[in-house]
Amino acid sequence: MFSTNQSKIQAILKLYGPSPPKLVDVNWRLDYQVETNTRGPVQKLIYFIDLILEDKGRRELLSFTASHSELEDLVNTLKDACQSVKRVALL
Questions:
Q1: Of 12, 15, 17, 21, whose CB has the highest number of CB atoms within 10 Å?
Q2: Strand partners, 62
Q3: Structural domain tally of the chain?
Q4: pLDDT band at 2, cuts 50/70/90?
Q5: Beta strands in the chain (DSSP E)
Q6: Is residue 4 part of a domain?
Q7: Is residue 16 in some structural domain?
Q8: 13: Cβ–Cβ under 8 A, 6 or more apart, which residues?
Q9: For residue 48, is it within any domain?
């Protein structure tokens, strides 16, 4: 998989240079959306997530919203990425 996407991965990593931003904190809250002006009743959970990143002593805020299933997908993707890094580190 790496070899087929190697050029794309390298191009993205070049944007960050030798040291990508470091995740230093996470803030989140859970809201329950009852209805909207345009769609009426929706009744769903929405997670508001703020990632605080530090890059060369400067802090940046990365904010996004996600549904429960989107957040589960993100967690699973991060777990897969961690496992991939562990496998590569053992080579």
A1: 21
A2: 51
A3: 1
A4: low
A5: 22-36, 40-55, 58-66
A6: no
A7: no
A8: 20
A9: yes
33 falls within a domain: yes
H or E, element range at 2: helix 2-16
**Amino acid 73: pLDDT:** 92
**Pick the residue with more confidence: 40 or 84?**
84
Q: Is residue 33 within 8 Å of residue 46, measured between CB atoms?
A: yes
Residue 68, domain extent = 21-90
Identify the residue whose tokens are 């299933």: 69
Closest CA to 52 of 18, 73, 21: 21
Confirm whether pTM is higher than 0.90: no
Contact by Cβ (8 Å): 22, 55: yes
Q: pLDDT tens digits for 25-60? A: 999 999 998 877 887 787 889 999 999 999 888 999
Distance CA 46, CA 34 (A): 11
